Amino acid sequence: KYLDIGVNQIVALRGDMPNIEGEYVPLENGYKYADDLIAGLKELGDFDISAAAYPEGHPDAPSLEFDLEHLKRKMDAGANRAITQYCFDTNRVIDFINKAREIGVDKPIVPGILIVNNFKQTVNFSKACGATIPDWVFAMYENVGDDQVASDLVSVQIAAKQCIDLMQNGVNEFHFYSLNRAEITKDVCDILGITES
Predict the structure, then answer these.
(1) pLDDT tens digits, the chain, 197 residues: what are they?
(2) 66-69 long-range contacts, CB within 8 A, separation 24+
(3) How far apart are CA 98 and CA 124, in angstroms?
(4) What one-character DSSP code corresponds to residue 86?
């Protein structure tokens, strides 16, 4: 039905259980892993598929190496690119990309950049999804309090710094998790000199 209406770009995620801490159990006749879903989509049509990647490892993965092998399976199943979970440590992102290249992942890996909307919520969500928040990020929000304007300025600084650091390491494509704050994302793009999406 998507193809019939001209939609062919899919972000193919396994997803989580409604209780994010619960063990994943696929529906009857459902897909157990994202690579199975990607292979199934490719059987249906010529979808342009983005898969998920986790620079710090997926919470369900026993190791980063296991997770990297799973990323390769997703790419081999037909994904066109991977979009990473947000990660504030750009060195870790670069290391992850390099390790993926070493095991034969040659398709684009697009770093996910989080535009922080509410730092307290980000801290809580990060604990649930396994994303680390470095001390320097906590320090930047230390005196912000409930001042949304100040929080937005810090968010723009952090995202722009991450992008600049990644660009200096040869990365030229980003996926912004904007959390419905397009104006802040535009501010980051203005700093970077990006005029088109």
Answers:
(1) 888 999 999 999 876 656 656 666 666 777 888 999 999 999 999 999 999 999 999 888 889 999 999 999 999 999 999 999 999 999 999 999 999 999 999 999 999 999 999 999 999 999 888 899 999 999 999 999 889 999 999 999 999 999 999 999 999 999 999 988 899 999 999 999 876 65
(2) 68/96, 68/99, 68/100, 68/103, 68/105, 69/103
(3) 29
(4) P
